[in-house]
Design a protein that fits this description.
Shape of chain A: elongated
Radius of gyration of chain A: 18 Å
Number of domains of chain A: 1
Number of strands of chain B: 2
Strand order of the largest sheet of chain B: 1-2
CATH architecture of chain A: Up-down Bundle
Distance between the termini of chain B: 47 Å
Order of helices and strands of chain B: HEEHHH
Structural class of chain B: mainly alpha
Shape of chain B: flat
Distance between the termini of chain A: 11 Å
Order of helices and strands of chain A: HHHHH
Helix content of chain A: over 70%
Largest interface: A-B, 37 and 43 residues
Number of strands of chain A: 0
Radius of gyration of chain B: 17 Å
Strand content of chain A: under 5%
CATH topology of chain A: Four Helix Bundle (Hemerythrin (Met), subunit A)
Oligomer: heterodimer
Number of helices of chain B: 4
Chain lengths: 155, 102
C-alpha cells in the first residue's frame, strides 16, 4: 500500500512539476516576446494557454501534498531515524525545509487561484507571474528533495 | 472582484505557519509508532509529528481571519503583498533551517 501510494505521489508530482514549469515559463517575459514566429523547442514549451493550468495545478498540488502527508508517518518511523543514525544532517535539513515549503505552498493556493481566474486582469500580470514562479520553486524543491531522500533510503 | 478573502488567506497563512512551528503551537500531535493522536505531548509513544497540527492551526486561523475581513478591505489591498509576504516567509524559513548545514 505504501509503495503504491509513493508511486502515485511521485507520478502526480511529475505532472504537477510539468504543468507548473510550462506555466512559469509561459509567463516569464510575456511582454518581451517578438512578433516573428519562432519554432525553437523553448518557444514551443512556453507557448501554452497559461490560465488553463491554474485549476489543475491547485488540484494536483493539494492531492500531492495529501499523499505526502499520508506517507509522512512511515518516513518519520523508518527513514528519519536512519538518517540520524548515519548523521546525515543535510538530507534531514532539506526534508525539514520541504515540509515547511509545502505548507507555505498550500497557503499560497487560494491567492494563486484568485489571480488566475478568468477574466485575467492585465494589471495583475506581475502578481500572477510572481505567484507562479514562487509555487514552481516550492514544487521543484519538494520534488528534488523527495528524489534525493528516496535514493538515500526508500520507504 | 469575487472571493477576495482568498487573498487574505494566502497573506495570513505563511506568517501564521512560521509562528506555529517556531513557537510550537500545534493543535494536536500524531504519534506514528502507535498511530495515535493526542492533544498534548505524551511520553513513551515515540517521536510525534507536529506538522499536521501546525497546518491545522495556521489553516483554521487563516480561514477565520479571511472570512472576518470585510471584502472591500481585501479588494483595496495592494496585490503585491500576496506574493511578497510568502517570499519573505520562504526566506525566513531558509535562514532558520541553515542550522542543519553548519
Amino acid at each position: 500500500m505504501i509503495v503504491a501510494l509513493l508511486i502515485f505521489h511521485g507520478l502526480l508530482a511529475v505532472a504537477l512539476l510539468g504543468a507548473l514549469t510550462h506555466q512559469a515559463l509561459s509567463v516569464a517575459s510575456s511582454g518581451a516576446r517578438s512578433d516573428r514566429r519562432s519554432f525553437s523547442f523553448f518557444d514551443r514549451f512556453r507557448s501554452v494557454n497559461s490560465a488553463a493550468y491554474a485549476t489543475p495545478v491547485v488540484l494536483m498540488f493539494a492531492v500531492t501534498a495529501l499523499c505526502g502527508a499520508l506517507l509522512y508517518p512511515k518516513y518519520r518511523v523508518d527513514v528519519r531515524p536512519a538518517l540520524e543514525d548515519l548523521q546525515l544532517r543535510a538530507p534531514n535539513g532539506i526534508f525539514e525545509i520541504k515540509e515547511h515549503l509545502v505548507a507555505v505552498g498550500l497557503g499560497i493556493l487560494p491567492g494563486y487561484w484568485f489571480f488566475w481566474r478568468a477574466p485575467l486582469a492585465p494589471e495583475q500580470a506581475r502578481t500572477r507571474r510572481n505567484l507562479t514562479w514562487l509555487l514552481a520553486f516550492l514544487v521543484w524543491w519538494a520534488f528534488l528533495t523527495g528524489h534525493v531522500l528516496n535514493n538515500i533510503k526508500g520507504l | 472582484m469575487r472571493y477576495p478573502s482568498a487573498k487574505i488567506f494566502t497573506l495570513v497563512f505563511g506568517p501564521l505557519y512560521v509562528l506555529c512551528f517556531y513557537v510550537d503551537i500545534s493543535l494536536f500531535r500524531y504519534y506514528p509508532e502507535t498511530a495515535q493522536f493526542h492533544w498534548q505531548m505524551t511520553q513513551n509513544e515515540g517521536p510525534p509529528i507536529l506538522w499536521y497540527g501546525w497546518l491545522a492551526v495556521a489553516g483554521l486561523t487563516s480561514a477565520a481571519i479571511a472570512l472576518l475581513v470585510p471584502p472591500q478591505w481585501a479588494n483595496r489591498l495592494w496585490p503585491g503583498w500576496v506574493w511578497l509576504l510568502p517570499v519573505i516567509v520562504v526566506v525566513v524559513i531558509l535562514l532558520y533551517e541553515v542550522r542543519w548545514f553548519v
